[in-house]
């Protein structure tokens, strides 16, 4: 079958990569767009696309003085977050998707989605985005190509990834790449006027781990449509990492410098909307400490020849939760956004062409809210959707660490796991060793947030903050984590494993208030973590791990009720006993796949808690 002659641009491909050309042609034939555009990533292209999006009503240009080259977008009110119910891992064997993922056989999913894609780009432009996750000068650059009919996705991908001409050139005519197919599922009839945010009620976010392919349909927002992010860098990459002996994790990466000028690198995994961006950009309140940012959402980690675990950030931008971001909580994010070149989605618009969201100081007297309605401080509704986001280049972060762009990565000294729990989990706990740390990660629990469609505030297990992102059987994933810890302490070139900690910034008092001030004050916890690495801070053994000894956590100058401090550090044996049946039920899900050492950890915990 040959392409219809009406598809303009199909034959003007700036590449001779045969596999890529064949795929682009096949998709064009299936989806029948009006034209095909190969994205070059230039500022001219950005200008053209944003002008078009403004004309289409998808974007509103913000006040040039306050927010240069920045835009306000509103989605369809039904397309506001990742759709976990509609996310599938289509492994050949259902067992390889495991008990935590939705599954459909690859051939069946491809049949269903091919029907949906047929003609789905009619009346639209099909964009081809060559991109690279991580530095382009890496020894083995991690290429992807996203085909999309959403110009909003193209602009977002330009912020979030390295993309365009240079990437395509580097791919040559044979480089491997992950094909990422995305369609809004909103074809236009001749003469039909478009809506500002096209999408489809039917949504599929599908992954084919064996063939390393991604097919997405029906949603234009966030992780559903920016396919380099969760789909590639976590779900597909986690399957690659399992096969190749590395880790693809939902982690921030930060650099800490102590008053003695010693540097440490920390990676931290918290579930969506549980504090990664804020910790990654933290302004320390403890004098003499410095924080620099390397990444805020995803870390790829592999052991180096020196036995240390090196982390790189595959992304190029920040896609951060807007509400709660303020000069008081995250001044470095505010400074990053002040430089412009950003897209704000589902926040509120001020009358003078700036943006506002809940938590950003006092509300103006009048706003246009995320649904496009008038809003005043008396309104009953939030001005911004709880999962509204800013999309901004990470290069604008004033505390970006220079190593950020180094393909070698940075050697990780400590890994933090954390969740959002109003009770039970202390502010900080140190794991006894790697296996205990993996146990803490595997049993991590958190209250659900607005980052995914569905109920908010429900406690669920979210292992390593990866529940929605593990691209294979989670039992095998735990086994992979255990295996990664093997080979420590047996020779000169042995592994030097990071120490593992478990944190919880979100414990609350009986009155519902947060017991710990959080944000910049979390530097106090980081100080204790570093001092534990240095063997300089005291800890006490509890049944669940080591917590700061009385006086070991620096609370100098902090206005904190001693009773609150005690409460936030408290290990309540009754609360922990109540967790045991939940953990048992969780582990049972994985059958034979669950590593025996994790059952042994649970047994040891039960013994320490005096549970039968
Ligand atoms: P994703 O981008 O969805 O992966 O989220 P994230 O993990 O990067 O979370 P982020 O840092 O954006 O924070 C999410 C929400 O938690 C925001 O509303 C923050 O203001 C709030 N938050 C972050 N850190 C703290 C903290 O230390 N204490 C409290 N109370 N809230 C926090
Ligand atoms: C998350 O939900 O963890 C995010 C936002 O970082 S999204 O890109 O939509 O996945
Ligand atoms: Mn995230």
What do you see in this structure?
It is built from 15 helices and 31 strands. The longest helix has 17 residues, at 228-244. Helices cover 26% and strands 21% of the residues. The mean pLDDT is 97. It is globular. Helix 2 (43-56) packs antiparallel against helix 4 (151-160). It starts with 17 loop residues before the first helix and ends with a helix. The strands form 7 sheets. Strands 1, 4, 5, 6, 7, 8, 9 and 10 form an 8-stranded mixed β-sheet that branches. Strands 14-12-13-25-29-26 form a 6-stranded mixed β-sheet, sandwiched between helices. The chain is an alpha+beta fold and 612 residues long. Bound molecules: guanosine-5'-triphosphate, sulfopyruvate and manganese (II) ion (MN). Residues 82, 222-223, 229-230, 272, 297, 319, 451 line the site of sulfopyruvate. Sulfopyruvate is lined by residues 82, 222-223, 229-230, 272, 297, 319, 451. Its main location: cytoplasm. Pfam families: PEPCK_GTP, PEPCK_N. Mn(2+) binds at residues 230, 250, 297. Residues 23-242 form the Phosphoenolpyruvate carboxykinase GTP-utilising N-terminal domain. It catalyses: oxaloacetate + GTP = phosphoenolpyruvate + GDP + CO2.
């Amino acid at each position: 079958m040959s392409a219809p002659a009406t598809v303009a641009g199909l034959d003007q491909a700036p590449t001779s990569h045969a596999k890529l050309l064949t795929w682009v042609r096949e998709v064009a034939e299936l989806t029948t767009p009006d034209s095909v555009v190969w994205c070059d990533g230039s500022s001219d292209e950005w200008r053209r696309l944003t002008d078009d999006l403004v004309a289409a009503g998808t974007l509103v240009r913000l006040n040039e003085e306050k927010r240069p080259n920045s835009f306000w977008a509103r989605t369809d009110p039904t397309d506001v977050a990742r759709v976990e119910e509609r996310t599938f891992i289509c492994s050949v064997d259902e067992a390889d998707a495991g008990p935590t993922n939705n599954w459909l056989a690859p051939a069946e999913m491809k049949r269903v989605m091919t029907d949906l894609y047929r003609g789905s780009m009619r009346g639209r432009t099909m964009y081809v985005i060559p991109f690279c996750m991580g530095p382009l000068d890496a020894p083995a650059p991690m290429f992807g190509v996203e085909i999309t009919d959403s110009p909003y996705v193209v602009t977002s991908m330009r912020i979030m990834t390295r993309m365009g001409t240079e990437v395509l050139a580097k791919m040559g005519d044979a480089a491997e790449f992950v094909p990422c197919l995305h369609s809004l599922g909103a074809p236009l009839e001749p003469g039909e006027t478009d809506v500002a945010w096209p999408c489809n009620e039917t949504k599929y976010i599908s992954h084919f781990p064996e063939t390393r392919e991604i097919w997405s349909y029906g949603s234009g927002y966030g992780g559903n449509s920016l396919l380099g992010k969760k789909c590639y860098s976590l779900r597909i990459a986690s399957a690659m990492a399992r096969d190749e002996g590395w880790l693809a994790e939902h982690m921030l990466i930060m650099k800490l410098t102590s008053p003695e000028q010693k540097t440490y690198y920390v990676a931290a995994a918290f579930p969506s909307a549980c504090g990664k961006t804020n910790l990654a950009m933290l302004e320390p309140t403890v004098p003499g400490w410095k924080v620099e940012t390397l990444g805020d959402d995803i870390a790829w980690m592999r052991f180096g020849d020196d036995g240390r675990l090196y982390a790189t950030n595959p992304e190029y931008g920040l896609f951060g939760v807007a509400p709660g971001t303020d000069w008081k909580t995250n001044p470095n994010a505010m400074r990053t956004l002040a430089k412009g070149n950003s897209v704000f989605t589902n926040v509120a618009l001020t009358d003078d062409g700036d943006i506002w969201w809940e938590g950003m100081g006092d509300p103006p007297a009048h706003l246009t809210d995320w649904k496009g309605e008038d809003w005043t401080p008396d309104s009953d509704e939030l001005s911004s959707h709880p999962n509204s986001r800013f999309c901004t280049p990470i290069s604008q972060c004033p505390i970006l660490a220079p190593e950020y762009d180094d393909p070698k990565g940075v050697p990780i000294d400590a890994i933090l796991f954390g969740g959002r729990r109003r009770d039970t989990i202390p502010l900080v706990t140190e794991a006894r060793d790697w296996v205990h740390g993996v146990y803490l990660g595997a049993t991590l629990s958190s209250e659900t947030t607005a980052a995914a469609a569905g109920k908010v505030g429900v406690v669920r297990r979210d292992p390593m903050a990866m529940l929605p992102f593990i691209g294979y059987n989670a039992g095998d994933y735990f086994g992979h984590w255990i295996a990664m810890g093997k080979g420590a302490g047996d020779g000169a070139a042995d592994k030097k494993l990071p120490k593992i900690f478990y944190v919880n910034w979100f414990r609350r008092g009986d009155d519902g208030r947060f017991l710990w001030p959080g944000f910049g004050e979390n530097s106090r916890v980081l100080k204790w973590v570093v001092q534990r690495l240095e063997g300089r801070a005291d800890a006490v053994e509890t049944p669940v791990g080591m917590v700061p000894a009385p006086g070991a956590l620096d609370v100098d100058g902090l206005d904190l009720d001693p009773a609150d401090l005690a409460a936030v550090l408290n290990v309540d044996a009754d609360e922990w006993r109540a967790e045991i049946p939940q953990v048992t039920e969780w582990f049972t899900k994985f059958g034979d796949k669950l590593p025996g050492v994790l059952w042994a950890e649970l047994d040891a915990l039960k013994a320490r808690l005096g549970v039968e």
